[in-house]
């Protein structure tokens, strides 16, 4: 049985118990676990189980709907387990789960590489904590996913000991008075995937040191709900980041600091307080596929025209943003009423017989804002001033404008 494929079919297990699979599907250790649970009327709490070619259990997914401590500890008696998934349900009007904790014995699974814990409350605002000592997980762990809790400083301290961790996802509900420090996590230097989401909100002064200390390997960053206002220049170290989501903070200035993040494929900076002009260098992000700059204070300049850009989300309230190329594919489904940038033609085919301009079109787009035969030409919608700089307005598009390197009035 392919455990990863099976997981795709058990989404409903997060809401209601699954109808139990045919016991004949399970072999080896999994058959033994299923029989043990069945004898105790807890079989519906097993969502998935996988064995290796020797019949040894290597992955198990259970919830606490019907199990007792005896059932849970039965699954902890197999030291061959590499992947462990546990969903905890809260009380509801029709059912009161008996078993509610993460037992510390889970640390005995010395081959464990992946552990996932989900708490699903009956009321959305309700949360659970994880008792001190219960996250003393084995050092072999590479992936940790915890969702739906109120985190404590002790939880963070215990996670900081997992120095082989590569994937860390924490989704929690902490109010300002429940604030904790991420500083202990700076010991984790192998994390390539980081997802921190707080649904209760408290302030962070900057991205956690964990992010900067993992700069050589980190490529996926999601940090939401932490009221971030400033991003330090250290973000320029994150040259391998492909996915950056800082949605729902209070960031004021960040676009100009992204120049070294040339591998970006996904960028979500929506719902912040950004008041910036889109910098020229962002047009050269060759892999950028998705960008969301909506719900900010003011985004200025020209819309992006990157060749791989499939989704570009701005905001109808941005009065200082203009369309650099009206044929940009990602703008086709958006209903923005932006004007065309100065120097941008309304025609699909702009025939120009000037041989110098044709020669200019063969140049690459500039990456530093300079326009000349060496640095390249300006992006669509920009003019090249007589001093050799790209921009818009009369200073760039008026007297002395160099039309071989950009548009001119």
UniProtKB/TrEMBL annotation:
Residues 368-409 form the Chitin-binding type-1 domain. Keywords: Chitin-binding, Disulfide bond, Signal. GO terms for molecular function: chitin binding. InterPro entries: Chitin-bd_1 (IPR001002), Chitin-binding_1_CS (IPR018371), Endochitinase-like_sf (IPR036861), Leu-rich_rpt (IPR001611), LRR-SigEffector_domain (IPR050715), LRR_dom_sf (IPR032675). SUPFAM superfamilies: Plant lectins/antimicrobial peptides (SSF57016), RNI-like (SSF52047). Disulfide bonds join 378-390, 383-397. It comes from the Eukaryota. The keyword Signal applies. It holds the Pfam family Chitin_bind_1. Residues 1-21 form the signal peptide. PANTHER family: LEUCINE-RICH REPEAT AND IQ DOMAIN-CONTAINING PROTEIN 4, LEUCINE-RICH REPEAT-CONTAINING. This is L domain-like protein. It comes from Neocallimastix californiae.
């Amino acid at each position: 049985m392919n455990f990863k494929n099976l997981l795709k079919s058990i989404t409903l297990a997060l809401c209601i118990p699954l109808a139990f699979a045919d016991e004949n599907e399970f072999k080896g250790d999994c058959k033994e676990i299923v029989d043990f649970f069945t004898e105790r009327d807890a079989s519906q709490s097993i969502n998935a189980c996988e064995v290796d070619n020797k019949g040894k259990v290597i992955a198990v997914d259970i919830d606490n709907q019907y199990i007792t401590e005896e059932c849970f500890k039965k699954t902890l008696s197999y030291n061959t387990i590499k992947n462990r998934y546990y969903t905890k349900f809260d009380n509801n009007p029709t059912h009161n789960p008996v078993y509610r904790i993460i037992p510390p014995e889970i640390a005995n699974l010395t081959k464990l590489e992946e552990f996932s814990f989900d708490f699903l409350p009956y009321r959305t605002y309700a949360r659970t904590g994880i008792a001190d000592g219960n996250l003393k997980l084995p050092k072999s762990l590479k992936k940790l996913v915890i969702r739906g809790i109120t985190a404590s400083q002790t939880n963070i301290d215990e996670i900081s000991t997992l120095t082989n961790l590569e994937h860390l996802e924490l989704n929690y509900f902490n109010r300002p008075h429940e604030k904790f420090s991420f500083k202990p996590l700076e010991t984790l230097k192998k994390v390539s995937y980081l997802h921190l989401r707080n649904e209760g909100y408290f302030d962070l002064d900057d991205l956690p040191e964990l992010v900067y200390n993992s700069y050589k390997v980190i490529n996926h960053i999601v940090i939401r709900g932490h009221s971030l206002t400033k991003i330090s220049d250290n973000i320029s170290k994150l040259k391998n980041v492909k996915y950056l989501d800082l949605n729902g903070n209070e960031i004021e200035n960040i676009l100009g600091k992204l120049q070294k993040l040339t591998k970006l494929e996904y960028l979500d900076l929506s719902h912040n307080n950004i008041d910036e002009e889109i910098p020229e260098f962002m047009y050269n992000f060759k892999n950028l596929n998705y960008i969301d700059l909506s719900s900010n204070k003011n985004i200025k300049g020209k819309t992006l025209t990157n060749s791989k850009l499939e989704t570009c989300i701005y905001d109808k309230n941005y009065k200082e943003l203009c369309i650099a190329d009206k044929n940009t594919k990602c703008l086709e489904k958006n209903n923005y009423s932006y004007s065309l940038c100065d120097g941008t033609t309304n025609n699909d085919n702009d025939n120009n017989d000037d041989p110098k301009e044709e020669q200019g079109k063969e140049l690459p787009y500039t990456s530093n804002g300079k326009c000349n035969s060496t640095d390249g030409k300006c992006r669509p919608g920009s003019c090249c001033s007589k001093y050799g700089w790209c921009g818009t307005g009369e200073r760039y598009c008026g007297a002395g404008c160099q039309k071989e390197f950009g548009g001119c009035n």
